Amino acid sequence: MALFSRRALQRMLDENACWMLPRQVRRHVSTLNNPAADNRIPIEWEIAVLNALCKLGQVVHEPKLTTGRAPDVLFLAGNGPSQVIADITTVSDKGLHAQNPFGPLLDELQPFLWDLRNRGVSGGFRVKAGDNSNPKRIRRERVSLKLPPPRRFKDQILTSKFQAFISDIAASPGMWRQFVIKTEDTDLEILYQPGSRFLCSSYAPYTLCYSETENRAFASMAEKADQLKGAPYDAALGIFLCDGDCVLFGRGSGKWAGGPCGISDVVDHFFHDYPFISFVVVLTIKQSPRFANSLNVGPGTLCYDCCLYSNPGLPPLHSSVADAFSHLPSSLPQPMRTAQNARYHLEWLRRTGRWHKGETHFGGLTVSSRQIKISLRTVQELLAGDLTQEDFLAEYSHDGGTAFRDMLQQGRLMTNVRVEKSHVPEDDDDWLVFEFGEPDAAVMQFVTRSGNKRQKASRRSE
Prior knowledge:
35% of the residues lie in helices and 20% in strands. The chain is α+β, with helices and mostly antiparallel strands. It has three domains: 6-93 and 210-346, no CATH class; 101-202, no CATH class; 360-443, no CATH class. The strands form three sheets. Strands 1-2-3-8-9-10 form a six-stranded mixed beta sheet. Strands 5-6-4-7 form a four-stranded mixed beta sheet, with helices on one face. Strands 11-12-14-13 form a four-stranded antiparallel beta sheet. The longest helix is centred in the first third of the chain and has 17 residues, at 40-56. The N and C termini lie far apart (71 Å).
């Protein structure tokens, strides 16, 4: 649904129910079914990591420790003597996006820009937000954009002055226009460009981090480390650190002078501050190197980046544990989206009321002289009345008809219908393949045809 397909999530829930407590599975299911839950991506990661570990060894979820804590994982790899106690945490830049609401600002501007488009204005816009950085100094601190919170957009940005700016563009669409706000807490420029047709945006990269400790990844690991403190000393203590849309995960290391930190810098510093933690496993979904030059970032083009960091001040993990962790990516389900795209997709599902429906092949169509391949769910929703004929035709019609009408006009009727599974494992939609025969007199005019092969052979023998 977000990172993984609904079918994959249900399979993992079913498999986990064989060894987890019913209340633990119910908690996962309740979160997945709740559109208001803001921890959907962390729960998907937790379900997937637990499911993968149970394929690689013995797992207990939330074991009760003598400290009163209940960590996420007690793991024993095969018959190895070494136990692992670990927590699973997911890190995102959600808080930074809330503090720097450039995305919500663009959403507020879109209706005005679409209104201009509907009025025949075809120019483009460039939106630039200023920040609090000092251009004369090498940047070593995280920047923040000078924008008010969304609740103050109407009072500070979408004012009568902005309305006049839009009206001037509509009155003279061939002239350049500029709208500028520079106050103590707002620095914004909107430029109208008659020769362009695009909306361009510009702002400082506020998600880049310049401190090994002042970031969400370190804070999340520190919180988990405090919970693991006091666990049995014969167990290796660790953390599974999962990407929930955090820029740090896309950077390996940034130890050049003044450069932004990477995830390895943060983990190295974390081991220094928490010397009793044996390992950190960093999990990220990224585009496969085979598709590095592809614009498609979706199922089939994605892979896992799984990196095991070991504390150099502690004995290394037992070989059976390290080997199990190396097989973690192959035990996880096929990812459907990166963490960033998963966040956008969840927001779209909430807006459209499609929380309980997986993605479909709606719009996909393959046609040959005797065959039509179309989304199975699209056809079933059309027959059920959930998809109107108008919406279906708007997506699939061409020149006033559809591929099915073309077949009918040729006099070809269906001879077979079969289900074809998607090439992406556990995809949330399949394909319906309709096969068609020779022209049939049942739906076409009578025609004159030459005799059959036996008649032709008889005439040749005479």
